[in-house]
Amino acid sequence: MDTPAWRKYMRFWRPDVKSDVDDELRFHLEMRERDFIANGVSSEEARTQAVVRFGNLTEVRESCYQIGQQRERRTRATDFISGVRNDVVFALRQLARNRGFTIAAVLTLALGIGANGLVLGLVNAVLLRPLPGVAEPDRLIAVTGTAISYPSFEDFRNGNPALTGVAAYSERSTAVSNGQHTEIAPVAAVTGSYFRVLGVKAARGRLLTDRDDKPGAPPTAVLSAKFASRFFPGEADVVGRSLNLNGMPVTVVGIAQEDFQGLRVDSPEPVWISAHTWMTLAPSSYAGRSLQGRGWRWLDMFGRLKPGATAEQAKATFNVSASRQEAAYPSDERGLAKAIATSPISTVGSSALSVDHDTVVRAAAIVTAVVAIVLLVACANVSNLLLARARARKREIGIRTAIGASRGRVVRQLLTETVVLALIAAVVGLAVTQLGLRIMSHLSLADGISIASLGVHVDGTVAGATVLVALVAGLIFGAIPALKTTQGGVTDALKNGTPGAGHMRSGAQRALLIAQVALSLTLLIGAGLFTRSLQRALSTDPGFDGSHVAVASIYVGLIRSDSARASQIYGAVTTQLNAVPGVRAAAVASALPLADGSDSYRFTLDDFTPPDGTRLQVEVSDVSPKYFNAFSIPILRGRVFNDRDVATAPHVAVINETMAHRYWREANPLGRRINFGGDTVTVIGVVRDVRYHELHEAPIPFVYRVLNQQIAESGLSPVNIVVRTIGNPAAAIEMIRRVMHDVAPEVPVYREATFDERSGHTIFAQRLGASVLGLFGVLALVITAIGIYGVVGYGVAQRTREIGIRIALGARTRSILRIVLIDNITTIVMGLAIGLVLSIALTRTVNSFLFGISATDALTFFTASILLLGVGTAATLIPALRAARVDPVIALRNE
């Protein structure tokens, strides 16, 4: 019997299942045919009977095909798993044998990966994480650009074909009390469609509906689950309980589902009431306002898109409705159509629905790019370390190739090592991320937002994204060394020698080093720009002195007091505070510079008429005597307010120098009259210009009025207590609480802080940019210095024989140093040149965040370049000095 063809060879590639099955079946038919022939049957008859006896050949062949393919798939899967397991085990052994390299590479990558994980967590919390408790949040859109009135909302909610529903809400500071404890909380006044449009469910009881948002409806409220458990501890069910809001009882009708906290993750809403309920318990300062008044724009509106509809379609319908409202109510709805815009709902900002979503995305993109650059620098550094280490493995790779391993198989093993290294770094990087979040949990961001309030944590999304970043990084920094290591012939690899003369490094190493230097320079320049910007901001004179000042907010109108009671409280508080030793001045103000938005009022002047007929408008703050002393605002002309400027005295005002110059030029403004509708005030003094909103703003006209003389208008709105002390202003906060408790214990105190803390948002961008870019810039600088040192050391090791020969032939130390330094400094200078070009292109994206300097500030660019050049030169000098001290005898003997 002849040996079948499939047994005559062994395949070193994937088996051909169909050919093997056909060979096997052919063999069996031939054997059966030979048996028939041996029994005297003719050849043709034997072939026919063999097929008949065998059965359905086609069916058997298909069955064998399937069995063979299943077995082949199992074998291939088993071989692959076994191969991967062996590669991973070998990789772990290699990393364990080279602990110094492993520790350096893991720590370098972990810092880059950890930084990326931290930013991914922030971006996930701010932009990517769905609104908790909200159904299909991707279909929600916010109407931005302007707030709207309640009647305007009623017009907008009708007949928008792109939306399934429209709702509106407004966050209002409210005194919330359970009878034993009172606190100021951001209660949300909502329309009846609020919960329905959001798709929120009730955990207990029911949610607000359109029936609750009608005139005469009983005052009802819905609580968040967390607030209910905190405000009514130990009570299993608070549905039906009464809650006091601004001193009025409101019935709790339901608890929202556990995870819903409102539309702002940085400022959870504990209580929701209807818009009509809000008007029944609104503070006394709202007495003249009506829910049906179109001039009162106080609601933020949002809607839910129908499946397949777009925000542009919804906006088009909104614009049509807004144009109709403008035509019908030109005085109240002016500019409504032009202001209407739509965007995805953002969960962070002064208002979740009116925040500039594009600005949030842009800031997140910049920070993400920064940490990505740090990771690229770390990857380039590890790639150079791998290339430097490859020289020691040349012989190992040559042996593996000589015994039959293909280049692809060796590359796979080397890539497995780098991926294992990256995964170890990812685990350490996640620990770095967690540690960073813990350290930064109380970091104060803009408008009182903190990392903790955003709920940033390492969840499955962040962990998965971090591991993915690590895998991609492993493939990136491992590919070049793996391909470079497997280049060349087996004979050269097995020789235990080194190259002779030549450049210090390969082209790949030079390119990686240039990239490191260029990217590091970009981060250093960014850090320098923000640092100089912060210095400019801190050195800018705002026109007042906010140091040693403590502030706190109170809202007398919440307890529904009248003007007389408010005036009594303000007078008693300032009198007691001014009598405390160590207090230089205490005052009350309706608005603070660089901390609160002041009110804008229309006015007329007896001796000035606008040439173009426009209405005059000016910003106003109502203050008590000693306000100017509390902020050390210099008086330029006349006088400031004193205790004789009481409510019954003639109404007076103090203006700033810009106001005086704009409307009276060189004339004396003292004694001039300003008409604010029904109130006329006489100018008694001129004070220095103060920056009111931003440090970089141009001076604007401003008017200060006496708070007691405007008590009916401003005294029942939120006001600020201002205390200037001799010592630490933080110590004055408790003093303010104590005095307020003595004077009016029913009035809650909130937003207590030093003035620097309250106004810190004005330089938040500069402070954050300087700290983040500074940290990552220093990190990139250290990684680059280590990389330069490692690459130069590798280059010196490659040229040990050449350097030994040069020294043996009489070369001096200076000559050896020049050879090593010039080659490497040239590479660093090339990286600096590329980095300068890259920085000029990239720093323009942060120009709007800078203060007082240009995005191409020459001093910053020069200083960063010199710093990086100096660090690079120092990192090069150490191995260069080692090269100059090479003993030629030892060097040649080792070769």
Structural notes for this entry:
- It is a single chain.
- This protein is α+β, with helices and mostly antiparallel strands.
- Helices cover 50% and strands 15% of the residues.
- The protein contains 27 helices and 21 strands.
- Strands 2-3-8-5-7-6 form a six-stranded mixed β-barrel. The protein has a six-stranded mixed beta barrel with strand order 13-14-19-16-18-17. Strands 12-20-11-21 form a four-stranded antiparallel β-sheet.
- The longest helix has 41 residues, at 57-97.
- The chain is globular, with a radius of gyration of 38 Å.
- The relative contact order is 0.09.
Largest sheet: 6 strands, mixed, barrel
Shape: globular
Overall SS class: alpha+beta
Instruction: Compute the CA-based radius of gyration.
Output: 38 Å
Total beta strand runs: 21
- Per DSSP, the total helix count is 27
End-to-end Cα distance, whole Å, is 62 Å
Query: What integer is the average pLDDT?
Result: 80
Strand order of the largest sheet: 2-3-8-5-7-6
Oligomer: single chain
- Any low-confidence stretches, pLDDT <50, length ≥5? 1-13, 347-356, 496-505
Helix percentage range:
40-55%
Strand content: 15-25%
